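Pipeline run #58 for the internal structure catalog. This entry was flagged by the ingest filter as a single-chain record with no existing model, so it goes straight to prediction. Upstream metadata was stripped on purpose; only the residue string is passed forward. Reviewer on rotation: M.T. Logging verbosity set to normal.
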Amino acid sequence: MKKYYLIFALFTLVSCVEEYEPQITGENNMLIIEAMMTDKNEPYEVSLTRSIKLNDFDEIIYEKNAVVVISDQNGNSSTLTEVSDGKYQSNPSELIGELGISYTLTIYTEDGKIFESDPVTLIDVVDIDSVFITYREEYNYEINRMEKGIDINVSTKEWTEDEEYLLKWDFIETSKLVPKYSVMSRPEIPPNRPCYNIEKNNEIITDNTAAYTSNKITKKRIVSFNDDDTKPYFGYSILVRQVALNEAVYQFWEMLEENIEENGDLFDKIPFNPVSNINCVNDEKTKVFGYFNASRVSEQRFSFKPPVFGIYFNNIYDQTCGLISYDLEAFHNYLEGNNMDSTDVYVYDYTSGVIMFLKNKSCVDCSVNATTIQEPDYWIFD
């Protein structure tokens, strides 16, 4: 499975006619819309960004100060709040999706454009039956060795013979970090304080149940880890969310997947006529990328801590954090030669005239690279 972020994938698609590099101005400054509503009592998020030049990978252009409205077939509507640049959220006290009800997304941008989705009915989905691990072993010719690992899979409950689903899986991963080293004379950095990374994954994982001869999916691979991966080392938890896609939205994701398979490089081409169930209603020449979908959600959490199937995985701190040892004079020369002072390094120990230190703060304070230092309430390990 290939990993990437939708913000880049949306404008790196393939055109059957021509290839070109989009510019920031004019028609190619396309609005990118990601919008999903469910039956959950939770805020629904609409993300608005703009397409960027292919070589500006680090730049994201957020669509700010837009008016974003979700309305239903009964005349009810809710205006979303911009909670951060380009991120708009609904209020659960005003809007909770209901099965069988049709919803429309309308966006008013500062430049006077009005974007409106096709009416989307909140559809049902087959439930997840289980999330489970299987062992994997295969020869990797690139590194010339037998590679061991695990897959995290999903099975579904049975559906009836007259039912068909266009399915998509998203997942949120939580992993723990515990620094290997403590630091001297830095009370603001508690020794060996654990942290947690909570990350939404943006892989495209879809399936059409019409392709199955049985009435259930028994093993759909969601995530893979090799034995040298570091993420699961201190413990790992995954929340898998399974939704159904409306036909137009499924075609949108299929287009993205096919482009990756055909081109290999995410940043090769972009379509002249992108697939979307959203249009600019007051300027038909204005193109838009993205989707609006509505579905009931089936979700399930699965957690594990190594070893699993005899695999322990790797400690990231063993790979990236090594102690540097100098005597006092050499230490001062090191600092002076690198135009540093003692606050620019992190002293682990100072005994017998030898100073042992680290250059990277993340080796002693995992909060540098983690999303939170608060243990999630669903975390079940020490």
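catalog note: The first helix runs from residue 6 to 9.
catalog note: DSSP finds four helices and 23 strands in the chain.
status: ready for reviewer M.T.
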